[in-house]
Amino acid sequence: MKSFKHHEMVRERSVSGQTSTLVNLTFANRADDNSPSPGGEGRGEGGLVFVSHSRSKPGAFSLIELMVAVSLMTFIVLGLVVMFGQVQRAFRSSLTQTDVLEAGRIQTDMMVRELSQIAPSGRPFTTNFFTELSPLFNQPMTQGLPGTTYQGQPGTQDQRTNLIQRFFFLSQANLDWNAVGYQVIPDYVNAGVGTLYRFSANHSGNNSTNLSGEFLNAPLTNLNRISDGVVHLRLRAFATNGYPIAWDGNRTNGVFRTNAFDTGTLRVQNTAAYSRPGVPDAVDCYFMSNALPAYLELEVGILEQQVFERFKAIGNLNPQAQRRYLSNHVASVHIFRQRIPVRTVDFSAYQ
Fold first, then answer.
1. What pLDDT digit, counting tens, does each position of 284-324 carry?
2. How many CB atoms lie within 10 A of CB 237?
3. Read out DSSP for 263-278?
4. What radius of gyration do the chain's Cα atoms show?
5. Where are the domains of the chain?
6. Are 226 and 200 in contact (CB under 8 A)?
7. Whole-structure pTM over 0.85, yes or no?
């Protein structure tokens, strides 16, 4: 006889409700009642055989597995957040340095272009050029250089001295005399940092004698604001042989060395030079009549904007804290230096 099978899915649950099983019941009608029952299961009437196959249902995640997964995801997210913060800080720092470098180059190029056009007036008692320590910064600020030692002494640092000078010069365009001056004005005296301002005036013909006085007495409203965060502004004058103009301690005229062995000096006519006690390599120089320096060396130090804003946030009620803050941020100062040849120099003033 032909046999047939019928499958039926029966779900059984225990009384407690904690276990679920699937039972496959196979019904087989066999012609031979003496045939062995599959799987050793029971036999029903009429040769009907019941065959059961049970299989357990897969369980859900346990609490420990969930906690481990959440912990791993937390560590991954924290790592991504830290990496994103570092990348963001590096990006902001690069933008800040780019802005400072761009502003410093523009500012330096402008001053270099104007200084290269300096000209002598040829008139007695008329100042063609002068550079002097600013009275608003008569106490230079020093900044320690990390990783260095002073003369090999442990626990010390080499220090960089920031000077802020003001300078003035004349230039000629046809029959007109143009006067330009630069100075840094702080919030208070000896603040260590300030804002750079530019003075300009124009006189015609012989009316150029008192232009330097106009610069020194000019109110703030007559000055043009250039940039903030200037901590170093220095302009040094050099003679025709490349040695700096100095003061010999006896005469008022500026002098310069004649050789590398410092065996003698020569005077520069129509000049005056004075040294500043306690300020290294700071010489106030004044050139009149036909005298001009042969070379100029310009140095500009600009503080990063975010450091300058934090300096301002400290407030001028605590100037010592502000100066200490600046002294500890030497790496945030960007120095721009350039030497400028003066093409209109009169060599007879150096003989």
1. 999 999 999 999 999 999 998 888 889 989 988 888 898 88
2. 27
3. --EEE-TTEEEEE-TT
4. 44
5. 5-56, 87-350
6. no
7. no
Q: Please enumerate in sequence order all residues whose Cβ is within 8 A of that of 207, keeping only pairs 6 or more positions apart, or say none.
A: 177
* Helices 305-314, 319-327: crossing angle, 10 deg rounding: 160
Cβ neighbours for 301, distance < 8 A, ≥ 6 positions apart: 162, 230, 231, 232, 233, 333, 334, 335, 336
Question: Token match 């104007």: residue?
Answer: 114
333 bridge partner residues: 303
H-state helical runs in the chain: 63-115, 211-216, 305-314, 319-327
Chain segment 3-59, per-residue pLDDT in tens: 444 444 444 444 344 444 444 444 444 444 445 544 444 444 555 554 555 555 566
The amino acid at 81? V
Residue type, 21: T
The CA distance from 151 to 12, in Å, is: 92
